[in-house]
Amino acid sequence: MSLRSFLDDIAPSFEKGGKYEALYPAYEAVDTALYTPSSTTAGASHVRDGLNLKRVMITVWLCAFIPVFAGSYFIGLNANEAMQAMGLTSVDNWRGIFLNGLVGFDPNSVWDCLIHGLAYFVPLYITVFLAGIVFEIWFASKRGHEVNEGYFVTSILFTLTLPPSIPLWMAAVGVIFGVVIAKEVFGGTGKNFLNPALTGRAFLYFAYPAQMSGDAVWVAVDGWTQATPLGNAASDLPYGVDWMSAFIGTMPGSVGETSTLAILIAGVLLCLSRIASWRVMAGVFLGMVLTSSLFNLLPSTNPMFAMPFYWHLVLGGFAFGAVFMATDPVSAAMTNNGRWFYGILIGFMCVLIRVVNPAFPEGMMLAILFGNLFAPLLDHFVMQSNIKRRLARG
Length: 394
Description:
Layout: H1 3-14, H2 24-34, H3 53-86, H4 96-99, H5 110-143, H6 150-160, H7 168-182, H8 196-207, H9 209-213, H10 229-234, H11 243-248, H12 260-272, H13 278-297, H14 309-314, H15 318-325, H16 336-356, H17 364-393
């Protein structure tokens, strides 16, 4: 029996009047994720292009795996280098059950680094996905609507913003907060005005700051502490990495933020497929360049004032936020001109938070959430300007 036949056979149990009617959203989510929906438009219809919600979300989800594999490799590389420096040849925690017999923890081995890093990413992602999807299905069942592919994107982007050593229960709490508070209470996908992944990340940062920003959370080795280059910069210490190494990703950080190269490759694919707005990305970069250049001209004892724009680009979550978070089609600006202003605002706020408040060196998360709040207002002003201009012409 094929999978298609099996799904068709059990469908009556999940449809209205069936034994598992309350679980229909879960069944429908699995069915439409694997196959084309059974209900399609039969007659003539107006179609703008071939993009739909499923294709948009799945494309973003697949592109996110570029920084996943790059980030996992560099997590494993940093961990293996730390283990070598400490003289360790095995992992003592529960991951060692399969890691110790599978890899040799050699920092010069691509296999050892990648598998070691994936040993942290995969359990984290599974935990995040399962914790959040339970609440997605619960809200869908209560409201009688479908579970769409939006959570695939939320789950993987949220996971990529986390330090590799974060406790799994904490990741589950964060994603549940983001899904429920930032999305479901407003009606679900398409109705939220804040990015759910970033909302969950912000909640964890303020609720558990030591586990989200401490020096012991970035390298996946117990007993090893190492600050991120951005944290070093805020403390007026050597960055600990050259620019090209930072661009490639050989430095501590959250899973998805380390490799700017991998993020930019994913960004190009998202722009070419017309999934993400290049105007938002360009606006974020422009706002960052202008603001950081202005601070470079101002005399100050704060070392962050002197950081040039090309370092802001490769340190922290700037690149990841600009490509994957700021371009969220639901919480970002909708008009073309509004996207420019929205992006510039985020770039400006990111540098402002990083530079003026050295106690909080990573400003991209709050900058994007701030931009989300102003996106509807920016679109309103753009549309009102267009209306006035057309009335003047008429």
